[in-house]
Amino acid sequence: MNRREFLAAGAATALSTSLLPSLARASTSSPASPLLKGKAEHVISIWLGGGMGQIDTFDPKRRGDPKKKLAGSYYDSIPTAVKDVRLCEHFKELAPLMDRVTAVRTVNHAVIDEHAAATNWMHVGRPVSGTVVYPSFGSIIAHERGAGADGAPPYVLIGYPNASRGPGFLGAKAGYLYLTDTGRGPAGLSRPEGIGDVRQSRREKFLAAMRSSQPAAADVRLRDYDAAIEQSLKLSGPEFRQAFELGSEKADLRNGYGGEFGQRCLLARRLCERGVRFIEVSHNLNFLNGAGWDVHNSGILQQHELIKEMDKAVSALILDLEARKMLDKTLIVITTEFGRPPEFDSGGGRGHQGSAFTCVLAGGGLKHRGAYGVTDELSKKIVSDPVSVPDFFATIHAAVGVDYSKNLYDGDRPVPVTDGGKPIAALFA
Description:
This protein has 2 domains: 38-189 and 244-427, 3-Layer(aba) Sandwich (Alkaline Phosphatase, subunit A), CATH 3.40.720; 191-235, no CATH class. The chain is 31% helix and 15% strand. It contains 10 helices and 15 strands. It has helices spanning 3-28, 115-124, 137-145, 197-212, 220-235, 238-241, 251-257, 260-273, 303-323, 389-399, and strands at residues 42-47, 77-79, 86-88, 101-108, 155-158, 177-179, 278-282, 330-335, 357-363, 370-372, 374-375, 382-384, 387-388, 407-410, 413-416.
């Protein structure tokens, strides 16, 4: 044996010896927990851009006073349908429905000063990476479950396009179709004026002839582009576009949802009916208070208008889905980039807080309990049952039947679906 062979043999022996304790631990450890899997078919994700303050909404505490700089809630609280679970006084319509809802009060992450970074984290479930463009959880669900019906897109964004909502390395097939005008639908699917069915049919035949004369594309990006064209042609037809005819709904129902934001929630229900798997509804298109949920300084003065608008729309959505026997099949998710501290800033508003904040789940066939997790007397620190962002995402994935323990692949690189998250088991018991 020469010197090189001796050193190699010695290194191999040392490595195998170092692995023995861990191998022994693995062989004696308890088996992995069984995979949790719900029966929801659709997700309606409501995004509250700016940072909803948990202490002023779903996790109220003692009343504070901005003039006296006394930390605490900005509003009084009211009881709900669930014993010992209270909400802000402006959730009058949602309070009786909290037995269909779970406010997860102990979500947390490490970003507090940067809205864009926190927004990205609350869409992809992990910090930004310099080497991987991660997919949003909407794109993961679209990728894993696909559309619920032929001729429907798997993922629709009712709001402005943003990279945080995108498919990342999953590619265009897992991307979103977006719109901002609920009455017209996606502008990119509208035919130009003067293009009727006959002319459209001729154009499609011409496109098919051109494709048939070309060799099959080898580049996956070109194939994805062709698939996107095929889907857009299907979606530009009258059947899918009927989803955007909100005027066909009864006036009482439409009015029950409220204004612009409520109409977006109503459209989300109609899209679910047509087979869309995942819909994100942005609250932050035209805020009633001007500042949105980012309530620094005087922005907090009209925060109650946002709360009441959300109360009306989300309550109407829950009852509408329930009346149509769709609630158990549709998971409603309410997320935001971070929460708000109990202290008031110099202008009477609030700063940012990532150490403990609330995200909400409703419907979806889960075992709801009104609230999950406990924070301290000022909703600042977690007392019990912390829920990381990967844990929260794993709960969503499990509810809609996506394997939260698997890896996706960026080329040859494995990327965990939820960065190691585990679902809130109590909601599946």
